[in-house]
Automatic annotation (TrEMBL):
Residues 8-66, 75-131 form the CBS domain. This is CBS domain-containing protein. The keyword Nucleotide-binding does not apply. Pfam families: CBS (PF00571). InterPro entries: CBS_dom, CBS_dom_sf, CBSX3_CBS_dom, Diverse_CBS-Domain. It comes from Flavobacterium gawalongense. Transmembrane segments: none annotated. Keywords: CBS domain.
Amino acid sequence: MTVNQILSTKGKEVYSILSTNTVYEALTVMSEKNIGAILIIEDGILKGVLSERDYARKIVLKAKSSKKALVHEIMETDVVTVKPSDNLDYCMELMSTKRVRHLPVLENNTVIGIISISDVVKAIIEIQKDTIQHLNSYITQ
């Protein structure tokens, strides 16, 4: 299964903010959309990603104010991305080795979606269910 297949099921909706937004504004969007990370896209270019983990480690634990801190102060700028043609094994490897939970999907340097660890795990479970069903059919014939 590929990233594109996940996006075709999940959808390609992407939520983004600007690096000049406050962290509080970013968290508000994340809460409203029920997402764990938000992309920072400016002039059509992916500039970074802000996750709940970034907030916890760089705002809460340092006793900063999310209403005063700007997104660019805490966002991750070294963003790990994937292509629509990448397979799930590659995504799992990236997520594990890079210790990230969200992978923006780029095609021709344009963000066309985002997948999370949850999306990948759900897809793998579906693949395993299909495999088990095929094996059961084979055994019972």
